[in-house]
Specification:
The chain is of the alpha/beta class. The chain contains 17 helices and 12 strands. Helix 6 links the parallel strand 5 and strand 6. The protein binds pyridoxal-5'-phosphate (PLP) and zinc ion.
Amino acid sequence: MENNTYSAWFQCIAGCEGKLPLNEIVYRCPACGDLLEVQHDLDVLRQTSPADWKEQFSTRLATMSSPGSGIWSKHEWVCPAVAPENIVSIGEGRTPLFDVPRWAKQVGIASLRVKLCGNSHTGSFKDLGMTVLVSMVKQMVAEGRQIKAVACASTGDTSAALAAYCAAANIPAVVLLPRGKISTAQLIQPIANNALTLSLDTDFDGCMELIQKLTKSQDIYLANSMNSLRIEGQKTVGMEIVQQLNWQVPDWIIVPGGNLGNISAIGKGLQELRAVGLINRMPRLVCAQAQKANPLYQSYLTGFSDFAPKAAESTLASAIQIGAPVSVKKAIRVLTAFDGVVEQASEDELANACALADRHGLFTCPQTGVALAAFLKLVEKKEIKPTDNVVVVSTAHGLKFSDSKIDYHESRLSGVAPKYANLPVEIPPALDSVQQQIQQHFGS
Ligand SMILES: *Cc1c(COP(=O)(O)O)cnc(C)c1O
Ligand SMILES: [Zn+2]
């Protein structure tokens, strides 16, 4: 950044007057209690032409030295308040956009791409927001703020990201986890990064309620996506998708939704790109929910006229097992602006969609399975047309969820009929046994 005229601030989403600086410890509007969002001075961003921005974004990605962050290649758009020396980065963002032409052809659409946000340090897109939040904390500490620790409630991935970024920055972290409701990989991550790991006999919504009370104290800083600094990092997912498509906008972007920060973020990034003139049309957005945790889907059925939180039931898509999503208002606003759709997926649908995706070379987590199942259902319903280009956002790496993948292939998931199971064949260590199996499998 050559100059410091870029500016951004917190503002109430309900439209209350007033701008709050990004280094203030505040998560809700002091006047009405509604959520805050980060607003950028778009006029300053407009002083650089769209063509120059595009050029700069790609040059920076190409020339950036290690770790090379997709987020910080868009520093002015994300969080201009953070000084370069306070950036805590582990090379997040700039993830692959996986083209799946064979699958697109099979279902009869123009193209299908999967944005692999889980190909990142802690294995989920949560790194994107956490680099921004922890960098801001590092800056606040440098400015002399007393912050004892940064804390979050989590369905597993937020806590992993928080713990890693805090460990890198030497900032204490506290994570509240719903006992028995996250994967083994997700549990070991904060433990390994030496976060104070609190395992609570409740669900995510219970942890979220507690964390909001806990962070009323100013010295424990809130790292959930209710803190809208996170959204600024996550919004680059939408920006990167169009950048990777050479600034062509796809017809659909499909995102699995739990607490609904990510769908809001992706919409926000695209809206800002359009406001500054880097794109001139918008995709339709789809939020995909697990049927077992579908309060937004229920609301969608009422045309969003009504929203009621509900207790989330146990689902394989444990990272979106949330019944009282904090960012619901932002999500509804974004979905309305993008002619959005909410779709749901059963356990059987999500697990089989995962396994089918894996047969195309992906290695898909259950949450992404929800989005892929929604994709297949919308093609089936002819909402998605044969000429459409579709991007599905993959939110985590499948390796974090290998337990449920093993259960799938061993037919141990209740309510799931595994159509694509592939079991290892146990044989003696002899050449003829191997040859016989190959013969049997592939024919002669
Ligand atoms: C957090 C998370 C989600 C849901 O994102 P929200 O912003 O809570 O809607 C989806 N998938 C994975 C893997 C996650 O970790
Ligand atoms: Zn307000």
